[in-house]
């Protein structure tokens, strides 16, 4: 087949998957659209959201999310997972034996807070970070007595999730998802300046991301008022976005550098091996590959998370942060090829450590949470970079929280 | 000098230090006595504790704690550290520039909650676990907006604490306190049964500890009523306890197995090397050495934490848990010398992992917290045992929370 027909089939395949996702969501329940975390935050504040937790929305979220993630557009699944966990717990509470829990609002919200924790934890096999993240994004005041109940649920979820990986023999035993193998000299104290720099830039990148996302949503609303026929055609906009994403990921063009799944990319970026050992990063200049990967992903994600499908924001932002961090790490390695303290041969720059710092800092800035630092330790199975990660996350949060509402808050503001 | 005079000097030295600690606390401020966490919990609930945070109590706590810990009796310092951090923040808020914070109760409690986090974090260089532990032991409802402020303070504290270690060149760079070096095969899935067993036993040991501590305190109160002259002589009881502890730690007797500081003992117990490489554990049967160390420490700690000095409970209990866990781990190693899966040479039992699980489970059971699991990761710098640790901590908590109030709650109940 000719190059053109290959390209057309590639684009149509992605568009087909996304089209079904959009239609299923449209027909079954438009409540399944988006991350679900802003709505859960509203519910946890004591408001009712009719239809948000019923069976139609459940099916729409599951089917829509599976197809959208399968299509390859850069969206996350942690928000819809939280939504699904809450719908499952809502369904369980409708059973006669648990009806008394449902009728007591205090108990119902405690169950939902545990469900939110489970949703995040299953996603990353990160029970501690999952509980903390879910508290940060959904709660305003938190009852400490609910705390260990949420932990219990989250550990069960994470344990089962990783145990399945052992049973299906992709892993020998229970391990972290993105196991890193850094040596025991993680960083020199003077590298803290570079880590703080990563935190500062990630703070500003977070502001830019939230601002751009708002601009895109408002521009679409303006277009819908100006050209009412656009509002009728719900599939036109997703198909255009999908066509652009498919083109960028097409292997015949720059897809070699763009078209691999987030799990693989994060694994490479966190790795202690040089990037150019991997085929995907084998560009004459790895810095250029990282820059292209970062900027195109940034723009694609801004558009993709605004589509009318179940779509989270965490993993794409996490990936962007990891890319930016790795970029800084590779620059540092170029600058100090023998480490900062040249007298000590074990003191070398580890670019993978910068990727971890960047991932935690950018996802922390966009979601206004500090628990992303815990999630990265649980994801990588290494805690050596704890202080750089914490400091970068705090700096990024400080900058982002002073300037813009969090991604989830901004959605609540746009919707109301 | 004869063996007897050596022994007398040994006992008198310990007694002298403790005597000054008791007298300083008695004369300056009896508010410095005990852990301080129960009182902070009361303050965080909105009650006033006159004199608990003033300058006299500050000096009494600092001097009393230094001398008591120096004397070698098995007490912790995390409770008094929390108390000191709160007194420092209270003092700062008396300055004219911060007076407005002090006058607003909401802001004042937010500062105290950050101070509690700093107190725990500085102790272990564990910012995340410190924040979570301080929330669990002092708060009932927690404002999520205070969360990252507490993190910020805790990271600053932990960073400075570890940075001082770099500057004073005891460490090459910023690392965890009890760095472990386990291989990347942490445990076989079927070992989970043994980890759950550790959790169950630690839950019951926690109940026993809290119950015995209450019995000792009530027995002393009964003695004071029966024999009023005992109440006059505040130094008699501490001197008797100190004499027993000093005898047990005396190098000429069994002190070789008992008389080394908790930091060294925890380092050995968590280590992946066999214990009998260390002189302190070089007994014909290491299991006997562990049993003796555990049981004598258990009894000594029950008495020591009830003395009229500034004394925490966390580290002694943590050490006991580590000893019990290591005991189970050594038994498992005897039972399965080639690992559970004999076909896989890399799958061997790591007794140090059991020590980590036991330490987290027992300290979690006594304090009714699950964040001890986070503290152990930050202390050891390894997160591979996350699921066994979490599950054991949850099991131990479940057993302890259903039966007795936490150690801190039981003190509040005894005092009121």
Structure, explained:
The structure is a homodimer of 416-residue chains. Chain A is mainly alpha-helical and 416 residues long. Chain A is 69% helix and 1% strand. The first copy, chain A, contains 19 helices and one strand. In chain A, helix 11 packs antiparallel against helix 14 (286-304). Chain A is globular, with a radius of gyration of 21 Å. The mean pLDDT of chain A is 82. Chains A and B meet through helix 7, strand 1, helix 8, helix 17 and helix 18 of A and helix 7, strand 1, helix 8, helix 17 and helix 18 of B. Strand 1 of chain A pairs antiparallel with strand 1 (141-143) of chain B.
Percent in helix of chain A: 55-70%
Please, what is the average pLDDT of chain A? 82
Q: Give me the Rg of chain A, rounded.
A: 21 Å
The oligomeric state is homodimer
Q: Which term fits the overall shape of chain A?
A: globular
| N- to C-terminal distance of chain A | 50 Å
Query: Main β-sheet of chain A, in a few words?
Result: none
| Counted beta strands of chain A | 1
Name the descriptors.
416 residues; 69% helix; 1% strand; homodimer
Compose a concise summary of this entry.
The structure is a homodimer of 416-residue chains. Chain A has 19 helices and 1 strand.
